[in-house]
TrEMBL record:
Keyword Protein transport found: no
Source species of the chain: Amycolatopsis arida
InterPro entries on file: GAF-like_dom_sf, HTH_MetabolicPath_Reg, Tscrpt_reg_IclR_C, Tscrpt_reg_IclR_N, WH-like_DNA-bd_sf, WH_DNA-bd_sf
Name the record gives this protein: Glycerol operon regulatory protein
GO MF: DNA binding; DNA-binding transcription factor activity
Length: 260
């Protein structure tokens, strides 16, 4: 369909705005950096159109031009993403509360953002001794249950690239720090349907985490607690509950039209 002279796309939307967001998504798909020619190849848009849109996005701060003359996602997107993540956490809280009521331990919601997992919601347990990973905290994904649950859904080559960028520092002596061993571990997680953090991020803490399928940004929920309460036998009871709530969150995303 030929573009309309008024700049609309025929469905009531503004074509240039649609194309600008498509370029941002193409930048994200390339790992956050691309040349104009690469954007032209991936988007199918003519070079003059891409140049005009990119120039506008750079002026607004949503895209930046690096010293190598390639373009990358700009810092102004961070505030938008962080606010969207916090809103995600707000409407997820009722289901996290249900999970806490059922299993008796702290429930968390985290998203993968710029190679890190960010905790965006938490409902604490009612125990006097409980685990706190505060909202807003950022951690590398290889040492967390939520991070491993998310990475287990990604292609191995994407996981290797992420680990190459972040490294694999040890949070504790139990943290997996070898990429090959970690990828084998992710295959097990994908098969069993949930991830375990066995004192890998904090000594004495066990965590059960499940990815939220269809989330527009990679996300997972978890239940965490001291190993003395969250025993391996308790995991058999808790994991199905975490999977059920993750499925309910996925269904809510779909109902809101937010599924990827």
């Amino acid at each position: 369909m030929a573009p309309r002279k008024d700049g609309r796309d025929g469905s009531g939307g503004v074509q240039s705005l649609q194309r600008a967001f498509e370029l941002l998504e193409h930048l994200a798909d390339t790992g956050g950096e691309a040349s104009l020619s690469e954007l032209a190849a991936s988007s199918g848009l003519p070079m003059p159109t891409i140049h005009r849109l990119i120039r506008t996005l750079v002026a607004l701060g949503y895209v930046r031009q690096n010293a190598n003359r390639r373009y990358a996602l700009g810092a102004r997107l961070i505030r938008l993403g962080e606010n969207a993540s916090l809103q995600f956490g707000t409407w997820a809280r009722p289901l996290l509360t249900e999970l806490v009521d059922e299993v008796g331990e702290t429930a968390n919601l985290a998203v993968l953002e710029r190679d890190e997992v960010v905790y965006v919601a938490q409902v604490p347990s009612r125990h006097s001794m409980r685990m706190f990973t505060e909202v807003g905290r950022r951690l590398l994904p290889h040492g967390t249950g939520v991070g491993k649950a998310i990475l287990a859904t990604l292609p191995p080559e994407e996981v290797r690239a992420l680990l190459a960028r972040t490294g694999m520092p040890a949070y504790t002596e139990h943290t997996v720090t070898d990429p090959d061993a970690f990828l084998r571990h992710l295959a097990t997680i994908a098969e069993q349907g949930y991830a375990l953090d066995e004192s890998e991020q904090e000594l004495g803490v066990r965590c059960v985490a499940v990815v939220i399928e269809g989330s527009p940004t990679p996300a997972a929920i978890s239940v965490s607690g001291p190993e003395g309460r969250l025993t391996k036998e308790a995991v058999d009871r808790i994991a199905p509950a975490v999977r059920r709530v993750a499925g309910a969150l996925s269904a809510q995303l779909d109902a809101r039209g937010l599924s990827a």
